[in-house]
Amino acid sequence: MSTRLNLDLKDEKLYKVIKIRAVQEGMTVREIVTQALQQWLESRPGRPVTRLAVAMLNEMREKIFGERVLPGHAADFIRQVREERTSRL
Question: Which of the 8 DSSP states describes residue 23?
C-alpha cells in the first residue's frame, strides 16, 4: 500500500537544489525524502504508538481542520499547482 505525503517546502530554491542533487545521485526526490525520514527515525529512541498518541494526533487534526473537508481531489490540486509552477519557470 502506498501513502502520500504532500510536503510544502515554502522554498522553491531549496527544492530545485534537492532535485538537481537527486538527479546527480541517480535518485528521486521521493527516495531522498524517504531515506532522510528513515535516518531521522533511527537517530531517535523509539516510542511505541499508544492510544494516547493517536488521541493526541486526532486532537491536533481537529484543532487544525475542525469539521472542514477540503474540496476536490488532492491529485487534481497537485496537478493544478504543478501547472502553475511550471508556467512561471
Answer: H
The residue type found at 41 is L
Confidence of residue 16 (pLDDT cuts 50, 70, 90): very high
Q: How many domains does the chain have?
A: 1
Q: What is the pTM of this model?
A: 0.50
Domain that holds residue 23: 12-88
When pLDDT is averaged across residues 16-23 and rounded to a whole number, the result is 94
44 assigned to some structural domain? yes
Rounded to an integer, what distance in angstroms lies between the CA atom of residue 13 and that of residue 19?
A: 10
Q: Which three cell numbers stand for residue 42?
A: 533511527
9 vs 81: CA distance, rounded Å: 14
Query: 22 vs 14, 16, 19, 68, 79, CA distance in Å?
Result: 12, 10, 5, 36, 22
Residue range 66-74: mean pLDDT, rounded? 75
Is 2 inside any structural domain?
Answer: no
